[in-house]
Design goal:
single chain, mainly alpha, 65% helix, 0% strand, globular
């Protein structure tokens, strides 16, 4: 049992390092290929935790995996994710961009009681939430059957509510009147 766990850990570290290398070196087609191989397996699995670690889509397609790149800041990470989506658009790049902006929204809002959060912090969180919604909706356009997209949207709206524009019945409301100048 112990030896098996060591092998799994080693495999996990190798896969993780390979993903980071592909991402840092802008090898986006290979990243998409990696995810294309494991995504259908994860979708069809009845009990996700029984899958071998290398086939667990929800384990590998998490923004946290990419936020641990040494000497990269949030701006570099966002830039690389955008570059991925521009050069090799996929469910995975859109999904990770949605997660990225969801994390920015959460960090901007903070974990204090709502009445103690400044208006500027709320505004920054709202803008980031809108970006997150945009990218999750882009991912849904690519593959509407991905359950993790809906889970992320549910978590995002549970914490920060639906975006203002979601309730607007006109085609698109590009007005940003509800944001303060400080944001």
């Amino acid at each position: 049992m112990y030896e098996q766990r060591k092998i799994e850990l080693r495999e996990y570290q190798q896969i993780s390092q390979n993903l980071l290398n592909l991402f840092q070196n802008a090898q986006f087609s290979q990243l998409n290929h990696f995810y294309d191989e494991i995504y259908p397996i994860s979708l069809q699995a009845k009990i996700k935790s029984n899958l071998p670690i290398r086939q667990q889509f929800y384990e590998w397609c998490e923004i946290d995996k990419f936020q641990n790149i040494e000497n990269w800041n949030q701006q570099q990470l966002a830039s690389q994710l955008n570059q991925w989506h521009q050069q090799a658009p996929s469910l995975y790049s859109a999904y990770l961009l949605g997660q990225f902006w969801s994390n920015v929204a959460s960090e901007s809002r903070g974990c204090d009681f709502a009445h103690t959060v400044s208006q500027a912090a709320w505004d920054r969180a709202e803008i980031a939430k809108d970006m997150s919604f945009y990218w999750f909706m882009k991912a849904i356009e690519i593959d509407a059957k991905c359950p993790w997209l809906y889970l992320n949207l549910l978590q995002l709206t549970g914490f920060l509510r639906l975006p203002y524009w979601f309730w607007n019945h006109s085609a698109h409301d590009s007005s940003q009147d509800h944001y303060s100048p400080e944001s």
